[in-house]
């Protein structure tokens, strides 16, 4: 079946403002008459949300890096088949709060897991499906963590060290360098109005159909 909708993902470290920008994106697309499905990873279906709880709650049993990676992709496999692919086939655009770039950044960059292993799982689970457009919201690690801490108590991954989050940030920025056509980096420690005008600038060609991929 032909995919008709566009697949947009939002990425970045902790506390970079993805939630605020997600509702801005939704409003912007709705205003232009585009049907939108909002979702997130890990999560987005009942099973995947269960897996999210397993991944994010702190527990006495240490989750191995391999188990963490596989749980991310188990949640993703379910989410893709149940939510993302049906929505795209039905012509809805999908905006997903985090996707596989987060796996390269957190499990690859943060945990030092092999990029080849991640790539293999990406191909296995997703086939050819990749986001059409990705916004990478970037801010210095300490600024984001302060915001995350302010918001609520930290979950298992948010409780990682500064070094971990520096590696995550570096891995994200490297991916953006490798795929500049798809991944648009937006500095999120600037005024919201400036963040939003950059978002609309990058969205424009997709909305008005003059994007050639
Ligand atoms: P959230 O805080 O943006 O909802 O994301 C949940 C956490 O899961 C966040 O700390 C990043 C992490 N994560 C990974 O480590 N790998 C992944 O593939 C995804 C999707 C999220």
From TrEMBL:
<dbReference type="GO" id="GO:0006235">
    <property type="term" value="P:dTTP biosynthetic process"/>
</dbReference>
<comment type="similarity">
    <text>Belongs to the thymidylate kinase family.</text>
</comment>
<keyword id="KW-0545">Nucleotide biosynthesis</keyword>
<dbReference type="GO" id="GO:0006227">
    <property type="term" value="P:dUDP biosynthetic process"/>
</dbReference>
<dbReference type="InterPro" id="IPR039430">
    <property type="entry name" value="Thymidylate_kin-like_dom"/>
</dbReference>
<dbReference type="GO" id="GO:0005829">
    <property type="term" value="C:cytosol"/>
</dbReference>
<dbReference type="GO" id="GO:0004798">
    <property type="term" value="F:dTMP kinase activity"/>
</dbReference>
<dbReference type="Pfam" id="PF02223">
    <property type="entry name" value="Thymidylate_kin"/>
</dbReference>
<dbReference type="InterPro" id="IPR027417">
    <property type="entry name" value="P-loop_NTPase"/>
</dbReference>
<keyword id="KW-0808">Transferase</keyword>
<feature type="binding site">
    <location>
        <begin position="12"/>
        <end position="19"/>
    </location>
    <ligand>
        <name>ATP</name>
    </ligand>
</feature>
<keyword id="KW-0067">ATP-binding</keyword>
<protein>
    <recommendedName>
        <fullName>Thymidylate kinase</fullName>
        <ecNumber>2.7.4.9</ecNumber>
    </recommendedName>
</protein>
<keyword id="KW-0418">Kinase</keyword>
<dbReference type="InterPro" id="IPR018094">
    <property type="entry name" value="Thymidylate_kinase"/>
</dbReference>
<comment type="function">
    <text>Phosphorylation of dTMP to form dTDP in both de novo and salvage pathways of dTTP synthesis.</text>
</comment>
<keyword id="KW-0547">Nucleotide-binding</keyword>
<dbReference type="GO" id="GO:0005524">
    <property type="term" value="F:ATP binding"/>
</dbReference>
<feature type="domain" description="Thymidylate kinase-like">
    <location>
        <begin position="10"/>
        <end position="199"/>
    </location>
</feature>
<dbReference type="GO" id="GO:0006233">
    <property type="term" value="P:dTDP biosynthetic process"/>
</dbReference>
């Amino acid at each position: 079946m032909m995919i008709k909708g566009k697949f947009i993902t939002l990425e970045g470290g902790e506390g970079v403002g993805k939630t605020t920008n997600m509702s801005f994106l939704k409003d912007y697309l709705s205003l232009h008459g585009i049907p939108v499905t909002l979702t997130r990873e890990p999560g987005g279906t009942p099973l995947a949300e269960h897996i999210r709880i397993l991944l994010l709650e702190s527990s006495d049993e240490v989750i191995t890096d391999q188990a963490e990676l596989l749980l991310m992709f188990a949640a993703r496999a379910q989410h893709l088949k149940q939510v993302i692919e049906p929505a795209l086939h039905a012509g809805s655009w999908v905006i997903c709060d985090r996707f596989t770039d987060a796996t390269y950044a957190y499990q690859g960059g943060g945990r030092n897991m092999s990029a080849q292993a991640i790539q293999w799982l990406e191909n296995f689970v997703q086939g050819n499906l990749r986001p059409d457009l990705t916004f990478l919201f970037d801010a210095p690690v300490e600024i984001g963590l302060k915001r995350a801490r302010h918001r609520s108590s930290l979950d298992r991954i948010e409780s990682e060290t500064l070094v971990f989050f520096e590696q995550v940030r570096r891995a994200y920025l490297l991916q953006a360098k490798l795929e500049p056509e798809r991944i648009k980096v937006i500095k999120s420690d600037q005024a919201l109005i400036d963040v939003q005008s950059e978002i609309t600038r990058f969205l424009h060609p997709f909305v008005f159909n003059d994007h050639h991929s």
